[in-house]
Design a protein that fits this description.
It is a single chain. The protein is mainly beta. It has one domain: Metal Binding Protein, Guanine Nucleotide Exchange Factor, Chain A (Beta Complex), CATH 2.170.150.70. The strands form two sheets. It has a seven-stranded mixed β-sheet. Strand 8 and strand 9 form a beta hairpin. The longest helix is centred in the N-terminal third of the chain and has 7 residues. It is globular. The C terminus is likely disordered.
Length: 146
Protein backbone atom coordinates (compact mmCIF):
# COMPACT_ATOMS: atom_id res chain seq x y z
CA UNK A 1 0.00 0.00 0.00
CA UNK A 2 2.30 2.78 -1.21
CA UNK A 3 -0.25 4.84 -3.15
CA UNK A 4 -1.75 7.98 -1.69
CA UNK A 5 -4.77 7.27 0.50
CA UNK A 6 -7.45 9.92 0.86
CA UNK A 7 -10.31 10.57 3.21
CA UNK A 8 -12.26 13.22 5.02
CA UNK A 9 -15.25 14.19 7.07
CA UNK A 10 -18.96 13.92 6.32
CA UNK A 11 -19.45 17.54 5.18
CA UNK A 12 -16.23 17.72 3.14
CA UNK A 13 -14.69 20.64 5.08
CA UNK A 14 -11.81 18.41 6.21
CA UNK A 15 -9.79 16.36 3.74
CA UNK A 16 -6.57 14.42 4.20
CA UNK A 17 -3.97 12.44 2.32
CA UNK A 18 -1.78 9.65 3.63
CA UNK A 19 1.50 8.79 1.98
CA UNK A 20 3.13 5.58 3.12
CA UNK A 21 1.93 2.27 4.43
CA UNK A 22 -0.27 1.37 7.35
CA UNK A 23 2.02 0.51 10.27
CA UNK A 24 -0.59 -0.90 12.65
CA UNK A 25 -4.35 -1.11 12.75
CA UNK A 26 -7.26 -2.64 14.52
CA UNK A 27 -10.55 -2.36 16.30
CA UNK A 28 -10.76 -0.94 19.81
CA UNK A 29 -13.69 -1.58 22.16
CA UNK A 30 -12.47 0.68 25.00
CA UNK A 31 -15.06 2.92 26.62
CA UNK A 32 -13.60 6.09 25.08
CA UNK A 33 -13.60 4.67 21.54
CA UNK A 34 -17.13 3.38 21.98
CA UNK A 35 -18.39 6.73 23.20
CA UNK A 36 -16.50 8.80 20.64
CA UNK A 37 -17.66 6.61 17.75
CA UNK A 38 -21.31 6.32 18.70
CA UNK A 39 -21.16 2.56 18.20
CA UNK A 40 -19.50 -0.52 19.71
CA UNK A 41 -15.89 0.15 18.67
CA UNK A 42 -13.52 2.27 16.56
CA UNK A 43 -11.33 1.05 13.74
CA UNK A 44 -7.97 2.83 13.68
CA UNK A 45 -5.35 2.78 10.94
CA UNK A 46 -1.95 3.73 12.31
CA UNK A 47 0.25 5.64 9.86
CA UNK A 48 3.39 7.74 10.13
CA UNK A 49 2.35 11.15 11.41
CA UNK A 50 4.71 12.88 8.97
CA UNK A 51 2.89 11.12 6.10
CA UNK A 52 -0.53 12.45 7.17
CA UNK A 53 -1.49 15.80 5.63
CA UNK A 54 -4.80 17.48 6.40
CA UNK A 55 -6.59 20.43 4.85
CA UNK A 56 -9.35 22.20 6.71
CA UNK A 57 -9.75 22.92 10.38
CA UNK A 58 -9.89 20.24 13.05
CA UNK A 59 -11.20 20.62 16.58
CA UNK A 60 -9.57 18.51 19.28
CA UNK A 61 -10.46 16.82 22.55
CA UNK A 62 -7.72 15.38 24.77
CA UNK A 63 -8.29 12.84 27.53
CA UNK A 64 -5.98 10.43 29.35
CA UNK A 65 -6.41 6.78 28.40
CA UNK A 66 -6.41 3.89 30.89
CA UNK A 67 -2.61 3.82 30.60
CA UNK A 68 -2.28 7.49 31.53
CA UNK A 69 -1.13 8.41 28.03
CA UNK A 70 -2.89 11.44 26.59
CA UNK A 71 -5.07 10.66 23.56
CA UNK A 72 -6.07 13.66 21.46
CA UNK A 73 -9.01 13.00 19.18
CA UNK A 74 -9.44 15.37 16.25
CA UNK A 75 -12.69 15.93 14.42
CA UNK A 76 -14.47 18.27 12.04
CA UNK A 77 -15.93 21.20 14.00
CA UNK A 78 -18.76 21.55 11.48
CA UNK A 79 -20.16 18.02 11.13
CA UNK A 80 -18.47 16.32 14.10
CA UNK A 81 -16.91 13.50 12.07
CA UNK A 82 -13.97 11.84 13.82
CA UNK A 83 -10.88 11.98 11.61
CA UNK A 84 -7.65 11.17 13.47
CA UNK A 85 -6.14 10.82 16.90
CA UNK A 86 -2.67 10.94 18.38
CA UNK A 87 -1.43 9.19 21.50
CA UNK A 88 1.41 10.49 23.67
CA UNK A 89 2.52 6.87 24.15
CA UNK A 90 2.96 6.36 20.40
CA UNK A 91 4.98 9.35 19.16
CA UNK A 92 5.23 9.69 15.41
CA UNK A 93 1.99 7.84 14.70
CA UNK A 94 -1.39 9.17 13.61
CA UNK A 95 -4.40 6.93 14.14
CA UNK A 96 -6.80 7.62 11.28
CA UNK A 97 -10.41 6.60 11.74
CA UNK A 98 -10.95 3.93 9.12
CA UNK A 99 -14.56 5.11 8.80
CA UNK A 100 -13.27 8.40 7.34
CA UNK A 101 -11.35 6.78 4.46
CA UNK A 102 -12.67 7.39 0.94
CA UNK A 103 -11.98 3.72 0.22
CA UNK A 104 -12.42 1.74 3.45
CA UNK A 105 -10.91 -1.32 1.74
CA UNK A 106 -7.47 0.29 2.08
CA UNK A 107 -7.66 -0.51 5.82
CA UNK A 108 -6.52 -3.90 7.06
CA UNK A 109 -7.38 -4.57 10.72
CA UNK A 110 -4.66 -6.63 12.37
CA UNK A 111 -6.01 -7.04 15.90
CA UNK A 112 -8.80 -6.31 18.34
CA UNK A 113 -8.07 -4.62 21.66
CA UNK A 114 -10.22 -4.14 24.76
CA UNK A 115 -12.31 -7.10 23.62
CA UNK A 116 -13.38 -7.65 27.23
CA UNK A 117 -15.50 -4.51 26.88
CA UNK A 118 -17.31 -5.56 23.71
CA UNK A 119 -21.09 -5.52 24.09
CA UNK A 120 -22.92 -8.80 23.51
CA UNK A 121 -24.62 -7.31 20.43
CA UNK A 122 -21.28 -6.56 18.69
CA UNK A 123 -18.75 -9.29 19.48
CA UNK A 124 -15.20 -9.04 18.12
CA UNK A 125 -14.65 -10.86 14.83
CA UNK A 126 -12.90 -14.22 14.92
CA UNK A 127 -9.75 -14.97 13.00
CA UNK A 128 -7.31 -12.30 14.17
CA UNK A 129 -5.39 -11.63 17.39
CA UNK A 130 -7.72 -10.45 20.14
CA UNK A 131 -6.69 -8.98 23.48
CA UNK A 132 -8.94 -8.50 26.53
CA UNK A 133 -7.30 -5.11 27.21
CA UNK A 134 -4.43 -3.25 25.50
CA UNK A 135 -1.34 -5.40 25.02
CA UNK A 136 2.02 -3.85 25.86
CA UNK A 137 3.98 -2.58 22.85
CA UNK A 138 6.66 -4.96 21.58
CA UNK A 139 9.54 -2.72 22.69
CA UNK A 140 8.10 -2.04 26.17
CA UNK A 141 6.64 -5.23 27.71
CA UNK A 142 5.87 -3.36 30.94
CA UNK A 143 3.68 -0.60 29.46
CA UNK A 144 0.53 -0.20 27.37
CA UNK A 145 -0.13 2.50 24.75
CA UNK A 146 -3.86 3.02 24.86
Amino acid sequence: MNDTIRGGCLCGAVRYEISGAQTVGGDCYCDDCRRSSGTAFCSHMGVAEDGFAVTGDLAAFAKPADSGNLVTRKFCPTCGSAVVSVNSGAPGLAFVRASSLDDPETFAPQMTVYASRAPSWAPPPAGRPTFPEMPPPPDRPDAATA
